[in-house]
Sequence to fold (602 residues):
Amino acid sequence: MTFYPKHIGLFFALFASFLFFNSCNNKQETRQFNFEKFKKRVKTYPVYKRVAQWDSLMKFNTNDSLLPYLYYQRGEAYYFMDKMDYAAKDFETAVKLFEKRKNKKILAESYIHLGAAYTDMGQTKIASQNILKGLNLGTELNNPEIISHAYTELAHIYYLNDDIRNTIKYLKKTADLYKKIKDTIGMSIIYNNIAMVYKKQKNNEPAIEYLNKILDLHIEDKIEPYNLMILYTNLGTLTFDETDDKKKAYEYYNKALDIAARNNIKPVRTYLSISKLNEKLNEIDSARFYMEKVIKISNDIKEKVQLYDRLLKLILKQKNDTAILHLVNIKDSIIQLNKKMTVASNNKALQNNMKLLDQQKELLQAKKINKKNKIIFIFIIIVFILGLIISFQFNRFDILKHKQELIVLEQKILRSQMSPHFIFNVLSSIQNSLLENNPIISATYLSKFARLMRQNFDYIRKKQIKIQEELDMIRNYLDTQKFRFKDKFDYQINVDKELLDKDYFVPPMILQPFVENAIKHGFANISYKGLITINVLKKNNKICFEIIDNGAGYNPSDKDNKEHAMDIFKKRLLIWGKDIYESFKITGVKQGTKVEFCFNIM
Fold:
């Protein structure tokens, strides 16, 4: 296939498309990433795996807008792993990035999380500074969730500093905030925290009061069954410690056991609390009975060792040597089992770390491939743009060349119609008419000639003119030539009525070359009067012209080496369109020549 300039842009576009789709076939191509879906999935992983997931994604990520969220999520994972120094670094980075993006909500949460990490690191001063920054933003946004989070963390700082008054103060402020927005679940959590603070201080009366406040909210159906079981267990323990009312305490314990039974929960804390209560009452058999229940349902090896220690103390009080020996053997076997499980757990953790390392290597390799594909894609875009630019330049060159050809042809048409020879002959004829004392005739044809000059200069600058204007000009031309050749010929013009009723347009000066040719060559050596007939017809949504003369006839071999008006007209037809050029015909008739061609209706 031969490539012309106008094909080059298409070639570049196809080449660029080929490279693009070829690069996209790579299995490691970048796919649209759903961050929220990924975050939700990672939350289901064990904590130690979450960090590795976020770390791998950060290495593979190419989206800068996602980066602060990745630091935030990884910092949260480090926080839950109790690696506070790593958590603080990630939250600090997240804060800096969110500050640039002016995202106040997530920035406030980042400040509070950063403060919480510093709190657990023992740096309470810098912790409180960051928490207060988060609190200020939360207050500015009027966001209860952020404000309550900040109050809770401030209460934690005061609690660590043994400032119980301020601890309770901020917890109560949080509770009031939840009460204002009618968040009963949030209120129940804070009431429980207040109760636990009072319990830690052995201030049982207010502790019981706040636990009962949870029950007063009537949201037992909204509280997780396990938490509700713990609530009733704590109430049982605190009630007995405060009032020595065993019956009331057992009412709460039985409610806790009932919830555990209905929801298939292992009531380890409840059995342990009942065992402790019975031990206080010196009811050792009953205390031992519930301790054995705890041991039976507990699955944690380390916890079992501690529980056996407590059971051993109870049995020592009973002075049962056989039971003591049996219990010691069981405890030793559990300790050995715990050692084996620890080794197995360490090996499994090592294997998991190796797997994660392999995953990171794969992700790093994928990132390299992605970078390579990115370079290829940029190259493709550059090639494609260059192709478009080159194509545009070639097309622009073709348009300029086309315009230049039209200008040259128009100049040739003007020169062929208004040649000095033609002008001189017409003026000579008018002069002779004046000398023959025919001033009216001379004035008439001088006016026609002047109008013909003006029409030529006006129309040569236009791309198209009305059919009526073209016919008016050719009449002036024919009348001028008829006067010049002393009525050696006549002419008639026939036009379809439909073409005169509306404004139809054609290129200018399309009839003159054929009329000139008939006069100059067709009528040159005839002894009879010539006749030129011009027919303008409408055929199949086209305007067709027929120029017929009764002259000497058409002879294709009668040519010299000069470019004539006919040749110029053919070039114009080719520029106007291939279908127009193909409609052009010159044929000999019984006497004379017939020229025909058609234009699409404009």
